[in-house]
Design goal:
Strands 2-1-3-5-4 form a five-stranded mixed sheet, with helices on both faces. By secondary structure, the protein is α/β, with parallel strands linked by helices. It is built from four helices and five strands.
Length: 107
């Protein structure tokens, strides 16, 4: 199960490829809750292409990484940098065995 939030514009091809590769997708409406669900295994992955701020992800990201999830930006960079502008962060979080495959689908 994947929490998936992709925009309609510019992502149609990748959106189709991602949705074909996963079994079930959900949109929680709360990035923090969806990211913490990675920690307990309720979600296998979290994908949001943008619109996140540091306060949306900092605590939830720590919980998820401590729970064993791998978090990165959509280009594979570090998931948390305090200097990023508000509402500019896109994030991919997944169980380590799924992370690289999802990262490649999103490129």
């Amino acid at each position: 199960m994947v929490s998936l939030s992709l925009p309609r514009r510019g992502w149609a091809r990748r959106d189709h490829a991602v949705r074909r590769s996963i079994r079930v997708s959900r949109s929680m409406g709360s990035a923090a809750l969806a990211i913490t669900y990675l920690a307990n295994g309720r979600f296998d992955a979290f994908v949001q292409t943008g619109g996140l701020s540091a306060w949306d992800i900092c605590a939830a990201g720590l919980i998820a990484t401590e729970g064993g999830a791998r978090l990165t930006t959509l280009d594979g960079g570090p998931w948390f940098e305090i200097s990023r502008a508000s509402r500019s962060i896109g994030l991919l979080g997944a169980a380590p065995v799924h992370h690289q495959a999802l990262l490649e689908l999103l490129r």
